[in-house]
Amino acid sequence: MKHPAGFLARYGASPLHLLLVLCSFALALYAGIRLLKGDLLGVAIWFVGAALLHDLVLLPLYTLTDRAAQALTGGRPGGADDNRAHRVPPVNYLRVPAFLSLLLLAVWYPLILRRVPGYRPATALDPDRFLGHWLLLTAGFFALSAACLLAATARGRRKAERGRHAAKP
User: Fold this and answer.
1) Are 130 and 108 contacting, i.e. CB atoms less than 8 angstroms apart?
2) For a Cys-Cys bond, which of 99, 115, 135, 163 suits 110, CB 3.0-4.6 Å?
3) Is the dihedral of CA 73, 139, 113, 51 positive or negative?
4) Do 106 and 114 meet the contact criterion of CB atoms below 8 Å apart?
5) Contact in structure between 93 and 115 (CB atoms under 8 Å)
6) Handedness of CA 153, 159, 165, 169 (dihedral sign)
7) How far apart are the C-alpha atoms of 8 and 165, rounded to whole Å?
8) Whether pTM exceeds 0.85
9) CA distance to 50, 138, 153, 165, per residue, from 116 (Å)
10) How confident is the chain (169 residues) per 10-residue block, as mean pLDDT?
């Protein structure tokens, strides 16, 4: 898709990007209007409370957790003295499964923590299964991530050995 150079220089992206951003704003505005038709004060209190909880409690908590994970995994590659700048930081092999597990917990926490009293009569499903399934999924995420880390480490070692053999006269 060809677009004028002046537009690209001023906006910084293609016209398609601008169109998609405007569409997402329109969708968010529509959802906001539909949401606020009901209990305006309740929604406003919930939104402000969620923002305060995130900024004052959760952000410092997961920042400290991430810094501790970086310290445990040896930090991030790519420093001035690090010749592994192209590698994925080892901490990402903890971040991704933790994110997926916490995302599932955030979405399904009422069922995982058995906080839905009328679930069984309404659905005829056993709510006791959700905690076990979530734990199995979490273990699977971390096992898959560990396998990916092992494969990346083995590939890096093979590449380093080939580099050493090629450097010998």
Assistant:
1) yes
2) 115
3) positive
4) no
5) no
6) negative
7) 47
8) no
9) 22, 22, 44, 62
10) 69 87 93 80 86 94 91 66 62 93 92 85 82 96 96 88 72
